[in-house]
Every structure is written in C-alpha cells, then in structure tokens.
Known about the structure:
Layout: H1 8-11, E1 19-23, E2 26-31, E3 34-41, E4 48-49, E5 52-53, E6 60-65, H2 71-77, E7 82-83, E8 90-94, H3 100-112, E9 120-121, H4 151-164
Antiparallel strand pairs: 1-2, 2-3, 3-6, 3-9, 4-5, 6-8, 7-8
Amino acid sequence: xxxxxxxxxIEELLPHDIQSLPKHGGMAxxxxxxxxxxxxxxxxxxxxxxxxxxxxxxxxxxxxPVEQKKQSAFFLKYLFLENHPANKHWLYIPLDSENFExxxxxxxxxxxxxxxxxxxxxxxxxxxxxxxxxxxxAKKKVGKKVKADKKKxxxxxxxxxxxxx
Length: 165
C-alpha cells in the first residue's frame, strides 16, 4: 500500500464519501464515479519525461484529472496549474511550488463542490478493482459470424409443405 508522508494532510480536506486506492505510484481518489485526484510522493526526483526536461519534479505533488477539452476553464481560474507531461488529462501542482498548500486548497474546493468539470470518468470503481492474484477475465474473441445451419430447418419446412399438398 502506498503511504503518504508530506501530502497526508490533504486527505483530511477531502469529502467524507471519497474513495481511495493505490494507483499510478501514489494514491488515487474517486468521487461519484470519477477519478478526481492523485497524490504522488516518489522518493527520487524526476524532471525528465520522454527526453524532455521540465522545471518541476514530475512525481511529487497533486494531480487533478480533467478532460483535455475542459482544461481551459481551470487554467483561467488557476494560473498556477501545470500540464503533466505523462498524461494529457492531468493538471498538476508540484510539491516544490512556492505556494503549494494554498494552491492545493483552492483546487480541493472544486472537489468538495463536486465541480462537473473536474475528474475523468472511470470504467470501474475502486470496489470492483480485482484483488492481487485474481486472474483477469478472459477477453472475447471477435471473429467471423458463424452462419446458422438451416438445412435441417429448411428440410423440415419443405416436408411439412409437401404434406399439405
């Protein structure tokens, strides 16, 4: 299980009905069927992703999932948010930001207000995530349609028609 140290205080500010689950190397939080927050505290600093160096640590801070087409509303209201390079749907506040605590509290209010622009829908809730060791469900193979064998049915119908004559 992922334990939070520096970001533990954030959990106290979240709505009481929020669900949490270790995910993405941190702790993910779900509300009303949406992933609304990810807290990450990797021990080793990483400023690079896919050959690009960023001016902030990529895996120490708060990630706010917001669908890309809805992000402009958040950027207008919260100028301090960064795009996280690992996922186009993630807005980010690095832990080493000068006003980290105040900035996080501002965006957490959006979670408490259940802002419909915040969060990305999830296919499965934390309660339905398979337990470690469970085998994944077999995928259905998609292939050609099988034609039904109509010979017996047709011959029966033909024989019935022949008896009527």
